[in-house]
Design brief:
Blueprint (H helix, E strand, L loop, with lengths): L1 E9 L4 H11 L4 E4 L3 E3 L10 E10 L4 H14 L16 E8 L8 E3 L2 E3 L8 H10 L4 E2 L3 E2 H6 L3 H4 L4 E2 L9
Antiparallel strand pairs: 1-4, 1-5, 2-4, 3-4, 3-10, 6-7, 8-9
Length: about 170
């Protein structure tokens, strides 16, 4: 059994609908879903605001690659189109595998360019860490430290102020 944290984001079309569809698509493995947050775009500011959330998933026999395949499948179902000229451009749904733990609770490490674990930029993204802290208040990003310490330190201390809770847009944890 592997446990993983996945980050969800959407800034095109029915943003909350895309997040809810992703959560529904993970229902068989879903442990808990975070609250929903509205965040400014990251890396490419010429686009609409995002809705972001995080989910904790757990499934027997699932490996890190399984979570990546499921993430890509959810994105495809939402009509995600990748623009090679806009790496951080707008998207209907973005599902990133942030961290994975094996059956013994040890973090899975990978330097594969297609699936680097833990996610190489998660520690720089308030829109990933703030929702994650909802579902694991004492969580740790492997190799980086506790989520709360990361959110309080530069460069995220200022970014977290722009992350706005949207409690009226709840996701269902089954």
């Amino acid at each position: 059994m592997t446990r993983a944290v996945l980050s969800l984001g959407s800034n095109l079309g029915d943003r909350i609908g895309h997040l809810r569809a992703a959560v529904d698509g993970l229902a068989d493995a879903l442990v808990v879903a975070s609250g929903v947050y509205e965040t400014p775009p990251w890396g490419d500011e010429a686009q609409p605001a995002y809705l972001n959330a995080a989910v904790l998933v757990d499934a027997p026999g699932a490996g890190a690659r399984t979570w990546l395949d499921r993430a890509r499948s959810l994105e495809a179902a939402a009509g995600r189109l990748r623009d090679p000229d806009r790496r951080f451009g707008p998207r209907t749904l973005d599902v990133d595998v942030i961290a994975v733990w094996d059956d013994d609770g040890a973090p899975v490490l990978s330097d594969d360019p297609e699936l680097t674990l833990p996610h190489p930029r998660a520690h720089l993204r308030a829109f990933v860490l703030r929702p994650w802290i909802d579902i694991e208040p004492y969580g740790r990003l492997p190799g980086r430290g506790t989520l709360s310490d990361l959110l309080l330190a530069d460069p995220l201390a200022g970014d977290v102020l722009a992350v706005r809770a949207r409690p009226e847009l709840a996701l269902e944890s089954r």
